[in-house]
């Protein structure tokens, strides 16, 4: 059963509350739990748990514990390890020439990884809507009480 537009609106409103939890099931059988909790002293985020377990290493493709399911349910982030080198080198003419060389292309690499937290319910719902076969396990009465 697919999740309707009204149900997604109810899920988004529910996830906006503090101390909430919504559970989904992927077609592959994993249970996805989304809970809002504090990630620092005064900052909350929506944490995505896979089968009630969470490991930061799952989001890194080069790590031994990488799990492909994180590409579907976790948030994508990127960074450039060579950004500081590029900033320093681009200030001089020689540095600009050095950056253009083929053998220094590694400096421009972008590393992609996944994180298990979302800052807003809207961004989480936007990503979860694209998952085919996602089923809602949380009772509809709990999710739809805030829809409106």
Key features of this structure:
two-stranded antiparallel ribbon; 148 residues; alpha+beta; 30% helix; elongated
What does this structure look like?
Helix 1 runs antiparallel to helix 5 (121-128). Strand 1 and strand 2 (31-40) form a beta hairpin. The protein has a five-stranded antiparallel sheet with strand order 6-3-2-1-7. Strands 4-5 form a two-stranded antiparallel ribbon. It has helices spanning 5-16, 70-73, 83-89, 93-100, 121-128, 140-144; strands spanning 21-25, 31-40, 43-50, 75-79, 111-115, 117-118, 135-136. It is elongated, with a radius of gyration of 20 Å. By secondary structure, the chain is α+β, with helices and mostly antiparallel strands. Helices cover 30% and strands 25% of the residues.
Quick rundown:
The protein is an alpha+beta fold and 148 residues long.
Q: What's the oligomerization state?
A: single chain
Rg, alpha carbons: 20 Å
How many helices? The count is: 6
Which descriptor suits the 3D outline?
Answer: elongated
What is the average per-residue confidence, as pLDDT, rounded to a whole number? Answer: 85
Kindly report how far apart the N and C termini lie.
22 Å
How do the strands line up in the largest sheet?
6-3-2-1-7
**What is the number of beta strands?**
7
Could you describe the largest sheet, including whether it forms a barrel?
A: 5 strands, antiparallel
Please indicate the percent range of residues in DSSP E strands (runs of 2 or more).
25-35%
Q: Kindly name the structural category.
A: alpha+beta
SSE order: HEEEHEHHEEHEH
In the predicted model, the low-confidence regions spanning at least 5 consecutive residues are: none
Percent helix, as a range, is 25-40%
